[in-house]
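Morning!

This is the sequence you dropped in the shared folder:
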Amino acid sequence: MKIAVRINGEVHEGDVEPRTLLSDFIRHDVRLTGTKVGCEHGVCGACTVQLDGQPVRSCLMLAVQANGRSVRTVEALGEDGPHPLERAFQEKHALQCGFCTAGFLMSLEPFLRDHPEPSEEEIREALAGNLCRCTGYRGIVEAAEQAARELRGA
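The structure's back. C-alpha cells below.
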C-alpha cells in the first residue's frame, strides 16, 4: 500500500505491506531510530510517538493507519535546542541506559502541555504506561515536575 505520513513536519511516502507497524516504518523506512521497540506488545511504552499531538504506541499501530496524519518523534522534541524535559531528565538523573527515555519524553510533553501544574500523583498516572528498568521513577517524576515549572515560567 502506498502511504504518505507527515513525520516531524516532513512528508514521507512509501510502499508498505499492510501489516507494517508504524514503529517499523519510522525506524526502517524513514530511518529515525530515536523511537525504540521494546516489548512489541504495547506494554513498555518505549515506542511512544505522538500522532496528531497525542501519545500512541507505535508498535500497536499499523503504518497505513497513519496515512495522511501527523507523527512526531523524539527527534523533533529538541529541534531548537534542548527541550525543558530533556534538560530536566539530565539534571535529575532521570535516565540511565536511555532505552525508555524517548517514550517517557513523548508521553510527558503533551501531558505537561495539557496539565501545566500537575501533582506528583497525576504525573505518576500519566507515566503508568511507560516502564523503566534502570532508574526507578523518582528522578523521572522530579524531572517532570521541574520541566512543568520551567514550561509555565515559574
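Headline: Residues 96 and 135 are 6 Å apart (CA to CA).

More detail when I'm at my desk.
O.
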